[in-house]
Amino acid sequence: MSPPPPDNGNRGCIFMVKSNNDLMIKNFLRGVSLKPVKVGVCGLGVVGSGTVNVLQRNAEQLKSRTGRSIQLVQIAARRPNPACDTADISVTSDVFDVAKNPEVDILIELIGGCDVALDLVNTAIENGKHVVTANKALIAEHGNEIFERARKKGVIVAYEASVAGAIPVVKALREGLVGNRINWLAGIINGTGNFILTKMKECDSPFAEVLEEAQQLGYAEADPTFDVEGIDAAHKLTILAANAFGTKLMFDETYTEGISRITPDDIRYAEELGYCIKHLGIAHQTNQGVELRVHPTLIPQTHLLARVDGVMNSVLINGDAAGQTMYYGPGAGSEPTASAVVADIADIARLLDAPDVLSGTSVPPLPYDAGQDDVITLSIEDIVAASYVRIRAKDHPGVLMKVTEVIGRHGINIDALLQKETRENDGMADIVLLTDKIREGVLIKALQVIAELDDVTGPVTHIRVEHLG
Fold first, then answer.
1. Residues 362 and 227 grouped into a single domain
2. How many CA atoms lie within 13 Å of 33's alpha carbon, on the beta-carbon side?
3. Does residue 287 form part of some domain?
4. What share of the chain is helix, strand, coil (3-state, %, to 5)?
5. Is the torsion defined by CA of 120, 121, 125, 126 positive or negative?
6. Does residue 250 carry a pLDDT above 80?
7. Mean pLDDT over residues 36-59, rounded?
8. Strand order of the sheet with strand 106-109?
9. CA distance 436 to 295
10. What is the rounded average pLDDT of the residues 426-452?
């Protein structure tokens, strides 16, 4: 039969159903109460406590929007969290109690990490439970196997909160832009790195000093490696790219470079040339293959992404039909991330009475076809990009000529050039070049030759340039 129309836009839930389910659908559309959805939360940290608070505070609104109540029936936490009220909820210290609880319909995985979280999610799936997670590492590194296991068991694994906090960018790719061929996407998808680069620019301060401030403010972990070296952003880019291009998750093939080598001088020189430095995740579908890369990037000061400062996130998506669309908002935090968690819970709640959840209106976890296994991912040496290059050398005649001779010998065009005395006034100078687009492997070879010149005194800095549009 054809799917019934929604009754008033308040519920708006359409199922593909079999004829023997007519009565259930008619009762639903007439406003007959459906059974509550029972939820168990694993992890009561920043996001877990926010999720509890949002579920409790907005319970009536969620009921009106899904057609049924959503009941939090169990929490697993190692310790209480005074940021939320758990007085009337069953609490356990063992997350696997929730995965095996026959009363729980949806398990919310918010413990983080991969080892225990993977076992927990697999146990929940084996016990026929739907799963919602904010765990970007888990999805990026193990999502392919998790989704296949969930498909076989007929349950949903939802993960909107794993990328960019409150910004519904996964949903935008999976649903709102589904009619587009996505050409590329680029985003600021780690708030810690964006905060550090913003403060370095505002205060003309070195990386180490601003990192310490970020740690004091709670924006950076005691061990900040995942954030400042790009691993967190690479997890998120992996998820976005798979949804954008219809490929499997390819975290191991994502090029990752951090921001720890960026100096206030680089930021100042970039500004003088009309650019700012942002730590971007970039995915690009080309005729040669797919580019997956996270690295510091010069973008024009006039670009919208250049105005995304502090801990905020933003993603720019280019589709063949829609053109460029941009998504902006808080990329982390208790309730911003909980907003995405609860949205996934609501999506699953709307589907629970479909005769087969996965053949109802559910969107597949990835638009991936096994035929896409032969997708080629380009190595960083094979991408073509313009570049910013900073060379620290002795400040005497002839040095610039030696540098430009090497550049020319490798067939690299120079778009702009600066030569500046160092602020230390130590007899050194910075030679700053903006190159035209060139294959990265060619540029790397040229820079290796330049680094070996007698007059060059330190590592050569190289930052890619993108105009994104």
1. no
2. 6
3. yes
4. 40, 25, 35
5. negative
6. yes
7. 96
8. 90-92, 70-76, 37-42, 106-109, 130-133, 157-158
9. 19
10. 95
Q: What is the DSSP letter of 224?
A: -
The count of residues in the chain is: 469
Residues of the domain holding 206: 178-329
Kindly state whether residues 52 and 112 are assigned to the same domain.
yes
Task: State the catalytic residues.
Answer: 236
Residues 227 and 316 in one domain: yes
- pTM equals 0.90
Cα dihedral 382, 386, 391, 397 sign = positive
Residues 187, 321, single domain; the answer is yes
- Mean of pLDDT values over 411-433: 91
* pLDDT tens digits for range 98-131: 999 999 999 999 999 999 999 999 999 999 999 9
Residue 176 DSSP class: I
Which of 175, 173, 145 has the alpha carbon at shortest distance from 157? 145
Which CATH number covers residue 157?
3.40.50.720
Distance from the Cα of residue 247 to its chain's centroid: 16
Query: Could you read off the pLDDT of 351-410 as tens digits, one per residue?
Result: 887 655 555 445 677 876 544 667 889 999 999 999 999 999 998 888 999 999 999 999
Q: What is d(CA 458, CA 41) in angstroms, rounded to the nearest whole number?
A: 51
**One-character DSSP codes across 102-164:** TT-SEEEE-S-SSHHHHHHHHHHHHTT-EEEE--HHHHHHHHHHHHHHHHHHT--EE-GGGSS
**pLDDT for 172-201, tens place per residue?**
999 999 999 999 999 999 999 999 999 999
Give how many domains the chain has, as a whole number. 3
Same domain, 111 and 141: yes
Here the CATH number for the domain that contains residue 303 is 3.30.360.10
pLDDT band at 19 (very low <50, low <70, confident <90, very high): very low
CATH number for the domain harbouring residue 437: 3.30.70.260
Q: Is pLDDT of 13 > 50?
A: no
Longest C-alpha distance within the chain, in Å?
88
